[in-house]
UniProtKB/TrEMBL annotation:
<dbReference type="InterPro" id="IPR013822">
    <property type="entry name" value="Signal_recog_particl_SRP54_hlx"/>
</dbReference>
<dbReference type="InterPro" id="IPR003593">
    <property type="entry name" value="AAA+_ATPase"/>
</dbReference>
<keyword id="KW-0342">GTP-binding</keyword>
<dbReference type="InterPro" id="IPR022941">
    <property type="entry name" value="SRP54"/>
</dbReference>
<keyword id="KW-0694">RNA-binding</keyword>
<dbReference type="GO" id="GO:0048500">
    <property type="term" value="C:signal recognition particle"/>
</dbReference>
<comment type="subunit">
    <text>Part of the signal recognition particle protein translocation system, which is composed of SRP and FtsY.</text>
</comment>
<feature type="binding site">
    <location>
        <begin position="247"/>
        <end position="250"/>
    </location>
    <ligand>
        <name>GTP</name>
    </ligand>
</feature>
<feature type="domain" description="SRP54-type proteins GTP-binding">
    <location>
        <begin position="268"/>
        <end position="281"/>
    </location>
</feature>
<comment type="similarity">
    <text>Belongs to the GTP-binding SRP family. SRP54 subfamily.</text>
</comment>
<dbReference type="GO" id="GO:0005525">
    <property type="term" value="F:GTP binding"/>
</dbReference>
<dbReference type="Pfam" id="PF00448">
    <property type="entry name" value="SRP54"/>
</dbReference>
<protein>
    <recommendedName>
        <fullName>Signal recognition particle protein</fullName>
        <ecNumber>3.6.5.4</ecNumber>
    </recommendedName>
</protein>
<dbReference type="GO" id="GO:0006614">
    <property type="term" value="P:SRP-dependent cotranslational protein targeting to membrane"/>
</dbReference>
<dbReference type="GO" id="GO:0008312">
    <property type="term" value="F:7S RNA binding"/>
</dbReference>
<keyword id="KW-0733">Signal recognition particle</keyword>
<dbReference type="Pfam" id="PF02978">
    <property type="entry name" value="SRP_SPB"/>
</dbReference>
Length: 440
């Protein structure tokens, strides 16, 4: 995420590195570089200018404490200002009404339908809500199927009326259906268009009239940079939405949309989409995003994602197995599956402070676990439960069955045994303490 911008900001900061203090001259030079970096990232021109002017003033106004370097001071100021630029604090959804009606708007391909599914999943799993989805995209028959598939996947009902081509009537009927069935959140997916046109605007305004939504979320593809900001502005002028959803932040997004939308449209970004899977949705935290842009990582989000995926009861059962040295390949495989659910690897690594930068040029395959899973799949149930019993003959068979080779199987088994040993030691507090003491 934003690796290009990160690089360029890093370079801009170098101007100040090694300098004893902040002066008009070195700050002016740094700000020029920062502004260039922002413009290259497709940040709105006015936003970039106001931003660098603010940072410059702050930097010159600060008395440099002897304990921190100009570079560190600038990082701190940049962190604060970037956070502010993206909205300052988290803006949560207002879910106080019962039912809460949420209208989803945006252009075709922005990721509306995908987000609708993700939001239903989020509200059900994280907020304990009972959502109903309403399939209002009548112009694209596949959109209705897509929403039904997603609803099925996340276990949320979908209101569909395939006989109707009137999105306004469908939205209205959907809300009534939700009320009847006791759904406390009703999410309406609406039709998009390839570009903004009058008919679309009239239609969505009419849907707004009849459904009186509590939240209107505008979904936009972050890859489209400045266009995303312009589209947001047009939609907002007509619709007065309550928040923005930025999708596809997992790709090679330059960052312009994330950095400019709040200052141009004056509406908060509420969610970001970071992948195609239903779990790839994050509540937008301006401060965490600022740290990520500055290459400082985002440990808080990483831990939160892990907490969402790992069940406490399961973790306790696993601990018990580890202590008894009974951790087997079935456990190992389910751990891999849970890690995979947390998101794509590149994205996860980007959240570790420093790691994103260090590993930026390393090709990290999202299916790095594939050969490991293939090897485990080729084991018999007996072998999965009894890794110690996997002898040479069995190893050859597993290698053949999994389409890997004997070296890979040997390597995995060795790693597994080593890991099991370390885990057992770590699960014993006295041993763990001893190991820590022996660490270099
Ligand atoms: P709609 O026309 O606005 O309903 O868009 P869709 O929900 O059908 O999404 C368009 C495409 O973008 C689909 O292929 C989605 O899988 C993909 N997509 C949606 N959100 C994300 C995201 O956050 N990251 C990535 N990488 N792809 C996404």
């Amino acid at each position: 995420m934003f690796s290009n911008l990160q690089d360029k900001l890093d370079r801009a900061f170098k101007v100040l590195k090694g300098q004893g203090n902040i002066t008009e001259i070195n700050v002016a030079e740094t700000m020029k570089e920062i502004r260039k970096a922002l413009l290259d990232a497709d940040v709105n021109y006015k936003t970039a200018k106001t931003f660098t002017d603010d940072v410059r003033q702050k930097a010159l106004g600060e008395n440099v404490l002897t304990s921190i370097s100009p570079g560190q001071l600038l990082t701190k100021i940049m962190n604060d200002e970037l956070t502010e630029l993206m909205g300052g604090t988290v803006t949560e959804l207002d879910l106080s009404a019962n039912p809460t009606v949420i209208l989803i708007a945006g252009l075709n391909g922005a990721g509306k339908t995908t987000f609708t599914g993700k939001l239903a999943n989020f509200l059900k799993e994280q907020k304990g809500k009972k959502p109903l989805l309403v399939a209002g995209d009548v112009y694209r028959p596949a959109a209705i199927d897509q929403l039904q598939v997603l609803g099925n996947q996340v276990g949320v009902p979908v209101y569909v009326d395939r006989d109707s081509t009137d999105p306004i009537a469908i939205a209205k009927a959907g809300v009534e259906e939700g009320k009847r069935n006791g759904n406390n959140v009703i999410i309406i997916d609406t039709a998009g268009r390839l570009a903004i046109d009058e008919a679309l605007m009239n239609e969505i305004t009419a849907v707004k009239e009849v459904t009186q939504p509590n939240e209107i979320l505008f979904v936009v593809d972050s890859m489209t940079g400045q266009d995303a900001v312009n589209t947001a502005k047009t939609f907002n002028d007509r619709l007065d939405f309550t928040g923005v959803v930025l999708t596809k932040l997992d790709g090679d997004t330059r960052g312009g949309a994330a950095l400019s939308i709040k200052s141009v449209v004056n509406k908060p970004i509420k969610f970001i989409g970071t992948g195609e899977k239903m779990e790839a949705l994050d509540v937008f935290h301006p401060d965490r995003m600022a740290s990520r842009i500055l290459g400082m990582g985002d440990v808080v989000s990483l831990v939160e994602r892990a907490q969402q995926q790992f069940d406490e009861k399961e973790a306790a059962a696993l601990q018990k197995k580890i202590r008894k040295n009974k951790f087997d390949f079935n456990d190992f495989r389910s751990q891999i599956q849970q890690i995979k659910k947390m998101g794509n690897m590149k994205d996860l690594i980007g959240m570790i402070p420093g790691a994103g930068k260090a590993l930026k040029d390393v090709e990290i395959e999202d299916d790095a676990f594939k050969p490991i899973e293939a090897i485990i799949d080729s084991m018999t149930p007996f072998e999965r439960e009894n890794p110690d019993a996997i002898d040479q003959k069995r190893r050859s068979r597993i290698a053949k069955g999994s389409g890997t080779n004997i070296d890979e199987v040997n390597k995995l088994l060795k790693q597994f045994m080593d890991m099991r040993k370390v885990m057992k030691q770590m699960s014993n507090p006295a041993m763990a303490a001893k190991m820590m003491r022996n660490m270099p």
